[in-house]
Amino acid sequence: MSPLFHNFGWSAWGSAGVAVVLLAGCTGVPTREEKTVQQRLESVATLYRPGDARPQLPALKAESPLGDFLAHAMLSQPQVEAAYYDWAASVRRITTARSLPDPRLTFSADIADVVMAVMPGVMAEFPGPGKLRAAANVAAAESDVKYFAFESAVLRTAFNLKKPYYQLHFLDAKIAVNQEMLRLLADLEKLSRARNEVGAVTLQDALRAQIEQERLANEIANLQDSRNPLLAQFKGALGLKPDADAPPVPAKLETTPLDLTSDRLLADALVRNPRLKAMEAEVRRADASIRLAYKARVPDFTLGLEADVRPNPVMFSPQAAMTLPVWRDKIAAQLATAQAEKQAAAARFSAEQIMLAVEFAEKSFMFREATRNLGLLNDRLLPKARQSLEVARSGYASGKVDFINLIDAQRTLLDFRLAEVEARIQRELALAELSLVILGTPPAGAPILRTNERQPTEPGRSK
Q1: What residue spans define the domains of the chain?
Q2: Mean pLDDT over each residue of the chain, to the nearest integer
Q3: pLDDT at 112 over 90
Q4: What's the pLDDT tens digit per position in 386-397?
Q5: Backbone φ, ψ for residue 189 (5° rounding)
Q6: Taking every pair of C-alpha atoms in the chain, what is the biggest distance, in angstroms?
Q7: Are the C-beta atoms of residues 231 and 168 closer than 8 Å to each other?
Q8: CATH of domain 3-453
Q9: Can you tell me the distance from the alpha carbon of 81 to that of 446, in angstroms, rounded to the nearest whole number?
Q10: How would residue 4 be classed by pLDDT, with cut points 50, 70 and 90?
Q11: Please, are residues 100 and 126 in contact by the beta-carbon 8 Å criterion?
């Protein structure tokens, strides 16, 4: 055994080993906000990633309700998953922010011809009073920002699924309308040929009917081809990979329930909208950053203890150090930066409020416009257009109406029927966007916090 090791002594090595073991088992004291946010994460994890694994997804069949497709999308969409783990990481950063720096084991020795002194020790750094608490408050506010980004991703995914879902259903309605009009044109062609055979009209009427049929058949082909990109959007919204089989589309059309007669809808949107809540959390984070910047004026401390194990008894040497926050311009710059960030966050919050009100007004108008158009088309225009076509057809058969007026009546009916389908699409999309994106109303089974659980963390003052 070397003289150095002998002089150092078994007791010193044993004491150092005990210190390492004890320090390795230490845990900090979580803040109230940290506990609250961790409980929220656990609550969402039980729905979204129980055991950090994807839950069993519902089987997707044509007869499945829309809710099964929405659940599949919300649980498997990669954008939602990325937002969830961003939030989970931000929750864990609260623990990092409020924790003390790791203590350090030190060793020094005085050596001339022989070892004069052997001094193992422990050093620990202690940030100034309130600094760790203030840093934890900043991290807690950041976790709120990340949570509402996750909630926005969930709601946006639900809308991204509903949009092609409605468009696919109404695309089928458009194709059906055009096919029905195509059959009607075939009947009109037969009628014009019959009249041509008796010399009542020229062959030009039959040719016009054929031209209209060709135009309509091409339109049907275009509509059928447009189904492919909509199916790709529907598949992508479900979170299915490109090599996965194409999913079925729910056979039943389910509308979005929403009472737009309430005077409190905009007020509810300003309270509930997750984009707005994220901006509000940004303001709280900036405010917490200001309080942390004030703490730069408080010194940090270092405490340590060394033991000279050579003499008997052992001689202990306590140590202490303190930082001197003398660079006032640096402290002033940190504080000014935090205050500017708060002003920027407050301005973004106000801008988002204005934008949300504008979006609410636009989508509400689209809904009302579509509702009025549907009432006009179904109650007045479509019945008259059908009657006009019947009158024109009877008049053509008796020679009182020319073929141009007959085709014009047919086109009018087609335009009105397609306009009715477009109005239904506009209304459903406006309702879906109002409900999900603007009002922030989650679908059934959405893996997000309940309203009473999503209140912002309110960090205590540490100034």
Answers
A1: 3-453
A2: 89
A3: no
A4: 999 999 999 988
A5: -65, -45
A6: 134
A7: yes
A8: 1.20.1600.10
A9: 13
A10: very low
A11: yes
Distances (CA, A) of 233 to 27, 166, 198, 245: 48, 12, 54, 14
Listed in sequence order, the DSSP H helices in 99-226 are: 131-197, 204-225
Give the HSE-up count for residue 412: Cα atoms under 13 Å, Cβ half-sphere. 18
As given in the structure block, the two tokens for residue 150 are 């996750």
The Cα 124–Cα 122 span in angstroms is 7
What torsion do the CA atoms of 7, 12, 17, 23 make, to the nearest 10 degrees? -140
- Within 8 A by CB and 6+ apart from 201, the residues are 192, 195, 403
Give the pTM. Answer: 0.87
- Per DSSP, the residues of 48-98 read H-GGGSPPPPPPP-TTS-HHHHHHHHHHH-HHHHHHHHHHHHHHHHHHHHH
How much is the pLDDT for 194? 87
Decide if 82 contacts 157 (C-beta within 8 A): no
Task: Identify which of 166, 155, 174 has the alpha carbon closest to the alpha carbon of residue 230.
Answer: 166
Q: Hunting for tokens 């259903």 — which residue is that?
A: 169
Per-residue CA distances from 175 to 171, 179, 371, 418 (Å)? 6, 6, 22, 10
Residue whose pair of structure tokens reads 């225009």 in the numeric block = 381
The angle, 0 to 180 degrees and rounded to 10, between the axes of the packed helices 382-397 and 131-197 is 20
Instruction: Look at residue 196 in the predicted model and tell me its pLDDT.
Output: 85
